[in-house]
């Protein structure tokens, strides 16, 4: 399989500000308390929180996350410290996720504070804006892509409903029968390029964990091999997490497990290996994007509007950017690869549970909970 990616957007030279390396520290430095709170240092740092296994397990807050997040706001409820959620999860538009997170965590989250695995698909709009594309995954894959501006997108659910017997075991699936009794959300008349030969699909997008692996592997194999002697249509994954921490006590198979399953089957039945492009953490551009968004949050939400006269953001960068995650091979690996000013903090509330630091992708700091992580950051930055 060949991997590749395109950066979601070009970083201007203005945004690539060299920053001073972080001072060395040890775990014991978390015991150091600052006695001063200089105002000018308040926004010299930013924080990226993973969601699953760090602030939530399923829909239940964990690690005292509501209390920890409240510390990043002032008494009036306005953002004091720039932070965002950097998750490989998804399935619903960022605006809806922000609303949902606000309800669950008790603080006001802006849509711009939510970076999901599929958020980077916006960078492909220019290429596929008017093409007929199929999107799959739990949640509302077509709505997500439509909100990004893709004009001719259909969900896998609706797409398969136009083909008789495309899934030979569909009638054994209780949930599938319920779906089949519904009319598709989209009219094919409004979707340019639609045809029922499986060959009209210009690209396929897996935006989150597919609900029906068997059906999706079958139909993606159909779509991706529909044009004989032609190159395979592009296939994009929002992330590649093998496992993640959901509501069930032990880890669950993620979108990366689905990618392996699809690839294994496809490569057994086709002579040319599957080609796909994977987005999400730990890709470097995800962390670069997060930095850009944190700078915007700092400029427009924390410090008031501090754009320069020429309309650009101020030149000063962050002294530190903290990634708080539970998955060493995704959150910690990504932050380590991004390098300074990123600083990785691993919690023990999700995928990772060990006493000692992770051997392959060691974090800069290991804590039990997200609350401890925020406590450490605020002490270190003298901003408590
Ligand atoms: Mg996680």
From TrEMBL:
InterPro entries listed in its UniProt record: CDP-alcohol_PTase-I (IPR050324), HAD-like_sf (IPR036412), HAD-SF_hydro_IIA (IPR006357), HAD-SF_hydro_IIA_CECR5 (IPR006353), HAD_sf (IPR023214)
Annotated TM spans: none
Gene3D superfamilies hit by this protein: HAD superfamily/HAD-like (3.40.50.1000)
One Pfam family it belongs to: Hydrolase_6
Name the record gives this protein: Hydrolase family protein / HAD-superfamily protein
């Amino acid at each position: 399989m060949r991997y590749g990616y395109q950066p979601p957007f070009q970083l201007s030279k203005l945004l690539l500000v060299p920053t001073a390396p972080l001072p060395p520290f040890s775990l014991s430095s978390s015991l150091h308390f600052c006695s001063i709170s200089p105002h000018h240092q308040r926004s010299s740092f930013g924080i990226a929180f993973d969601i699953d296994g760090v602030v939530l397990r399923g829909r239940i807050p964990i690690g005292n996350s509501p209390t920890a997040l409240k510390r990043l706001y002032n008494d009036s409820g306005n953002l004091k410290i720039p932070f965002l959620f950097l998750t490989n999860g998804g399935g619903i538009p960022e605006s809806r996720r922000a609303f949902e997170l606000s309800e669950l965590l008790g603080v006001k989250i802006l849509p711009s504070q939510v970076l999901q695995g599929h958020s980077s698909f916006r960078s492909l709009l220019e290429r596929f804006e008017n093409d007929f594309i199929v999107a799959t995954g739990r949640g509302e894959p077509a709505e997500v892509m439509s909100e990004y501006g893709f004009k001719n997108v259909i969900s896998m659910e609706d797409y398969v409903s136009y083909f008789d017997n495309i899934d030979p075991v569909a009638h054994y699936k209780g949930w599938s029968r319920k779906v089949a009794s519904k009319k598709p959300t989209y009219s094919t008349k409004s979707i340019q390029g639609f045809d029922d030969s499986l060959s009209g699909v210009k690209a396929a997008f897996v935006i989150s964990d597919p609900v029906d692996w068997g059906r999706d592997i079958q139909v993606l194999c159909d779509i991706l091999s529909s044009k004989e002697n032609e190159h395979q249509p592009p296939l994009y994954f929002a992330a590649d997490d093998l496992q993640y921490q959901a509501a069930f006590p032990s880890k669950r198979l993620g979108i990366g497990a689905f990618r392996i399953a699809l690839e294994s089957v496809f490569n057994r039945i086709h002579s040319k290996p599957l080609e796909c492009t994977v987005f999400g953490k730990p890709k470097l551009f995800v962390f670069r994007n997060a930095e850009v968004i944190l700078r915007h949050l700092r400029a427009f939400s924390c410090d008031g509007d501090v754009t320069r006269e020429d309309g650009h953001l101020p030149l000063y960068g962050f002294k530190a950017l903290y990634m708080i995650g539970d998955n060493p091979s995704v959150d910690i690996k990504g932050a380590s690869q991004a390098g300074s000013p990123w600083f990785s903090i691993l919690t023990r509330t999700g995928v990772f549970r060990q006493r000692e630091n992770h051997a392959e992708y060691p974090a800069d700091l290991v804590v039990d909970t997200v609350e401890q992580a925020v406590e450490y950051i605020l002490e270190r930055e003298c901003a408590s």
